[in-house]
Amino acid sequence: MAHHKYVVAFRIGFQSSLEYRFNFFLSLFSAVFPIVVQYYIWTAVYASAGESGLFGYSYQEMIMYTIIAAVVSKLVITNMEHAVAEDIKSGGLNKYMVKPIAYFGFRICSFIGQRLIYVVISLFVILALTFALNSFYKQHTGFDRLLAFFLSLCLSVILSFLISYAICACAFWLSEISYFFVVTSLLVNIMSGGMFPLEIFGEGLQQLFRFLPFHYMIYFPVNVLNGKIADGQIWQGIAGQGLWIGLMLIVCHLAWKRGMKRYLGLGG
């Protein structure tokens, strides 16, 4: 029954998502305003440019990217940084040190439980948006791409958790972490393609971003669905997601191992 405690952690996270599901719908609704703003911005940009394509995207592809990326970004964001930092600062980790459950195992099982219903709801929203956009712009997204998108989206959620968990380890060294989380969240969102396609940053920065794991969080799954990534490159990208998940597991282990050496456990 060693695994039972992690099932309980999953159940706690799932129950939490049911209790606060209104927050999820509210966060989805909050994505509408920036989508509308970007719609008018890109419409004006394409109209003034007088070209059918900019940054390698047609107008239809850019609008579809903007809308789907806004929904995906709401899904992959963990929002757990402050809770983990509070456990570190207040001594909340103490109970995980004396109980037969690993803090990482508790957090990831709870996170998967919290995200399960969000993934299901978001998939329905994304499928509905894809069908509507395809009908409006007379495009076609094949079933094979939908399956590849679903797989890449699940991997991006896991990768996002690991990146956030590694960033949370900075709380062992920084006394005031709130502003650091704000800055890192903004940078991660930009480098992951949550605000704009990475192509708008130019070839140099785009190549730099491709050597980092962030573009696998939003940019890659959205462009799988959008049709911008060739069929032969989809599985290479999914393999890249798996590779980065493995590397981030190592980074998280090393960062938290060093951090725990500085942990004082006060207040727990």
Structural notes for this entry:
The chain crosses the membrane at residues 20-42, 62-84, 119-137, 149-174, 180-201, 238-256. The chain is an all-alpha fold and 268 residues long. It is built from twelve helices and two strands, in the order αααββααααααααα. A two-stranded antiparallel sheet has the order 1-2. The chain is globular and about 65 Å long. The mean pLDDT is 82.
Strand tally is 2
How far apart are the termini? 27 Å
The secondary-structure element order is: HHHEEHHHHHHHHH
**Share of β-strand residues:** under 5%
Pfam families: ABC2_membrane_6
Keywords: Membrane, Transmembrane, Transmembrane helix
Protein name: ABC-2 family transporter protein
InterPro entries: ABC-2_transporter-like
Quick structural overview:
This protein has 268 residues and is an all-alpha fold.
Write the layout of secondary structure elements.
Layout: H1 4-19, H2 21-30, H3 32-49, E1 53-54, E2 57-58, H4 59-76, H5 81-90, H6 94-98, H7 103-137, H8 143-168, H9 178-191, H10 202-210, H11 219-226, H12 231-262
Antiparallel strand pairs: 1-2
Protein name: ABC-2 family transporter protein
Transmembrane segments: 20-42, 62-84, 119-137, 149-174, 180-201, 238-256
Organism: Paenibacillus ehimensis
